[in-house]
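Input (structure):
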């Protein structure tokens, strides 16, 4: 399997603070990797460094074989990667439909995309004219995931999407992301605190501790859950 993403000995940080310390991780094409770790270990920083919001100080990042180390975020758009940050970047005053249109500019694709996403999240078809800011927190997250999927990324980076979601929404989200992987061969790097969701969705987990990947393994191995919980509790 060829790599969708490789992070090779990448260091980065903010001002004088070094956060990522020669972190290395790869996501194969079609693979789902869950990145777990305690608060403040650098998980979001890793995603932001991949996306060029934080400049790498050392190391190399490749996307589908092309070197993207230090490439600015706006230049990454159109290269098949899509990023869902922890903060919800929706336009609160725009309608559901207008928010979805941001992902695609072709009318036929918008129509097909809205239909497809509504098959996953029926509220979308029912609330196309509702302002996004008036949706519930969970619905806003589903709208954001829909918008991201409508851009048909080959690699999706998602930061803590399960936070604040009720169990049935989390299960729905897991099913949707697995369905999209099966349908479109999507690769996924997921930052997650919700261990059950992280392992149920992923092929592989990786643990980030003080800016380094300190453990990784198959997510469905019998010992995976205990390993991850041990890392999160010490
Ligand atoms: N813009 C910033 N400027 C300075 N320091 C920052 C900035 N963003 C994050 N940090 C610091 O970098 C460290 C890693 O933060 P990061 O958000 O990457 O961790 P995380 O593992 O995603 O944590 P959490 O699980 O709490 O979201 C933290 O100490 C944080 O305070």
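Output (sequence):
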């Amino acid at each position: 399997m060829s790599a969708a993403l490789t992070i090779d000995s990448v260091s980065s940080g903010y001002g004088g603070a070094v956060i990522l310390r020669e972190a290395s991780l790869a996501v194969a094409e079609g693979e789902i990797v869950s990145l777990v770790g305690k608060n403040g270990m650098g998980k979001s920083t890793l995603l932001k460094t991949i996306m060029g919001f934080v400049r790498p100080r050392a190391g190399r990042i490749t996307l589908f074989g092309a070197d993207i180390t230090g490439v600015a975020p706006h230049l990454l758009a159109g290269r098949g990667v899509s990023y869902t940050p922890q903060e919800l970047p929706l336009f609160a005053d725009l309608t559901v439909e207008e928010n979805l249109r941001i992902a695609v500019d072709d009318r036929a694709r918008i129509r097909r995309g809205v239909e497809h996403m509504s098959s996953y999240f029926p509220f979308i078809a029912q609330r196309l004219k509702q302002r996004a800011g008036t949706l519930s927190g969970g619905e806003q997250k589903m709208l954001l995931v829909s918008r991201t999927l409508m851009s048909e990324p080959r690699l999706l980076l998602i930061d803590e999407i399960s936070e604040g979601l009720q169990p049935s929404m989390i299960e729905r989200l897991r099913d949707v992301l697995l369905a999209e992987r099966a349908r479109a061969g999507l690769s996924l790097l997921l930052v997650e605190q919700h261990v059950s969701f992280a392992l149920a969705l992923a092929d592989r987990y990786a643990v980030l501790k003080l800016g380094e990947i300190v453990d990784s393994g198959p997510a469905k191995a019998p010992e995976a859950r205990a390993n991850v919980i041990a890392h999160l509790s010490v």
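Notes: The pocket of adenosine-5'-triphosphate is lined by residues 14, 17, 19, 37, 39-45 (CB under 6 Å). The mean pLDDT is 94.
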